[in-house]
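Quick entry between incubations.
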Amino acid sequence: MFNIFKINKIFEITSKAPKYIFIIFIIVLSIGLAEALFLSPEDYIQSHSVRIMYVHVPSAWIALGIFSLIACLSIISFIFKNKNFSLIAKSLAPPGFVLNIIALVTGSIWGKPTWGTWWAWDARITSMLILVLFYSMYILAWRIFDKKEQANKITSIIAIVGVINVPIIKFSVDWWSTLHQESSVKVFSETSIHSSMLVPLLIMTAAFSLFALLIFLMKYNTELIKIKNKGLDRL
Amino acid sequence: MYGKKVKLRVLFIFLLLISVILSIFLILKSLEENVVYFLSPTEIKNLSEVKNNKIRIGGMVKNKSIMINSDKITFVITDFKNEINVIYFGSVPNLFSEGKGVVAEGFLKDRNFLIAEKILAKHDENYMPPEVTEALEAK
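Done. Structure below.
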């Protein structure tokens, strides 16, 4: 199912791809930053502090997306004992964790000039903090448990329990009254961000996705090297 | 098709998810009061008794209601059904203005009057450049 030939095949991609993805990432990031910092207009109420959105929103989206992905992979790897999937899930955790921290920190920096406070215990912010705790538990569990089999099971369960928090984060602003504003970009109705601000937001989202992909591939590559050099880390 | 173990693991995950979802639902349901960040003026009006603890009220700042007298600020929070008068000493966030969202934290004197200790501005989900707003207003 996951033999040495397959590893070699994947390894060929993961060892070469980061180079190219890094170049694309730098290009997209430069376009995104130029759009976000200089070309996009200021907001009618928030003026220039709205520019924090271009970092805050993409990192929060991707942190949520990655956790959902980890949970899906965990469910499959838990049921069918797919070792490759659990390896992919393990490698996805670091970029998700970093982006979640970025979302919280930039949110705090954004909160001060707009709301007048660094932190509020409202539903959206607290549930996002819980997600960081789940990411931390997930990453720590991989390190704590030495037996692969055991680590696989426990991390899967952490991810599966934690994923219930994802819809709570998403809908927290609709279900309860929160200080955090409601979603601006919606799937089924018109977005309430003017197109001149939506475009840089989407470019920054692409840039952050590439960043997450880059970190993931580097981590995944390391994990594969560990398996190839048997004795370091056997599957 | 699949082994017995696989079926057991599917059942395990199913039970795990159901039990966690149910317990979180129960916890959130019982903590509803604390999960909401603020109450609306209407909810304040319907309170059975005015308690002495800290409370947060949110809504819109009523148009032409802000009165500033040195460092004393009074204004009215409205949800377009009911209103609450707020008195506050101190500085307010930049985004605090008439017709915009606000959350005031403080102590209720009665059902119509709040002595605020902290004012937070709440902004909505609309983002647009100033020119667009002007164009919209010109219409």
